[in-house]
Amino acid sequence: MASDAKALRDAQYGLLTAIAQEAEVSLATVSKVVHRRRDVAAATRARIEDLLARYGYVRSWEATRSAPKQILAVFRDLVSPYTLEITRGIVDAGAEFGVQVVLGTTGSRSISRWLEESVALGAEGVIIVISMLTDADQLRIVEQHLPVVLIDPLHAPVQNIPSIGVTNWNGAREAVQHLLRLGHTRIGMVAGRSHSLAGAARLHGYRAALEEAGIAFDPAIVRSTDFDYAEGLKATLRILDHAHRPTAIFAASDAQALGVLEAARQRGIHVPWELSVMSFDDTLVAAMASPPLSAVRQPFQQLGHEAMRTLMQLASGKSPATLRIELATELIMRDSTAPWQVSG
Predict the structure, then answer these.
(1) What is the per-residue pLDDT across 284-313, written as a single tens digit (0 to 9) for each?
(2) From CA 234, how far away is CA 188, in angstroms rounded?
(3) Tens of pLDDT along 232-288?
């Protein structure tokens, strides 16, 4: 059954590609005509409609009137707490906009293949989450006017592709300022990778808060990892084994923060009285941790809504008001942070 559906999609994609070549237009232009978009010249539209009729192409919604609109949401993986929250935000927004969400990962196929899949399915567009687009992919999206929105791209797009994110720098700065107000002056960090826009911004926010407080940055108590539990655990063990270990650690994600908690448990260090832990994300696992994590909350529902709203705007042939939207974060206080009491 799955192989039949794939064969049908491949056949549709091949037919639309052949029509685009014969009409001497882009595949995106053919897709616009298929979806009855208005931003195609009348003569071009008539030529493409003639070819669609000649080749016997049947629009999916005409063959099955009850079929809902679809969008693709493509992730790097579907295993992290962050991914779960973003997925829920996009799916809830899809229900609000009357759109069915098809999930995929870049582990199963490349971004370029997902873009092809979007055209073959007749999807409204693609939301791409925490993935790296090649220059060729970006150029294709822009030149073929493919409706694509990025959430937390690893790199800033070089082309005019809209992206949605949060105030990573300011959120991290506020988190560290909170730890400073609690009396901590020796604050470590389990940071994200420097090649990640979000990871780099959170590290810079951490450093800015220290600098404003007149505290020198100490690279010995900062480790960069993927937003990953196992790597966060390993990095924290190294930080805690430092002769002058920190009294607080700021983790760049909930997954890493869970690694911090486990490292403290393995070293017999009590959280929060011997080590305060602050996280970034505030996914469902933050409140279920032991102790529950103080965290910088990302507005996941709003992220999904804004991404969907922008995508549907693009799908209707309109340009977004801005290419970059940053949503505000919020500090959530729980039991993993406490005032630092200097002994002696």
Answers:
(1) 999 999 999 999 999 999 999 999 999 999
(2) 14
(3) 999 999 999 999 999 999 999 999 999 999 999 999 999 999 999 999 999 999 999
Q: And the tokens for 81?
A: 């707490």
From CA 19, how far away is CA 68, in angstroms rounded?
Answer: 25
Query: Any idea how long the chain is?
Result: 344
Q: Is 155 helix (H, G, I), strand (E, B) or coil?
A: coil
* Tokens, residue 319: 């340009």
Neighbours of 17 (CB within 10 A): 15
Task: Give the model's confidence band at 56: pLDDT under 50 very low, under 70 low, under 90 confident, else very high.
Answer: confident
Please name every residue paired with 72 in a beta bridge, in sequence order, or none if there are none: 102, 126
- Cα–Cα distance for residue pair 116/195, rounded to 1 Å: 27
Pairwise CA distance, residues 123 & 140, whole Å: 17
Please, what is the average pLDDT of the chain? 91
Nearest-5° angle of CA 55, CA 58, CA 63? 160
- Would you give the distance in Å from CA 316 to the centre of its chain? 23
Q: State the Cα angle at 334 between 328 and 338, rounded to 5°.
A: 110
Whole-number Å distance between alpha carbons of 271 and 267: 11
Query: Helix (H, G, I), strand (E, B), or coil: what is residue 179?
Result: helix
Determine the Cα–Cα distance for residues 141 and 157; give it in Å rounded to an integer: 11
Task: Give the DSSP H/E element, type plus range, for residue 201.
Answer: helix 197-212
Q: Are 296 and 166 in contact (CB under 8 A)?
A: no
Residue-level pLDDT at 64: 52
Q: How many other CB atoms are found less than 10 A from the CB of residue 62?
A: 9
**243 CB neighbour count, 10 Å cutoff:** 5
Task: Please give the residue that has the higher pLDDT: either 311 or 8.
Answer: 311
What's the order of all strands across the beta sheet hosting 148-151? 99-105, 69-75, 126-129, 148-151, 163-166, 324-327
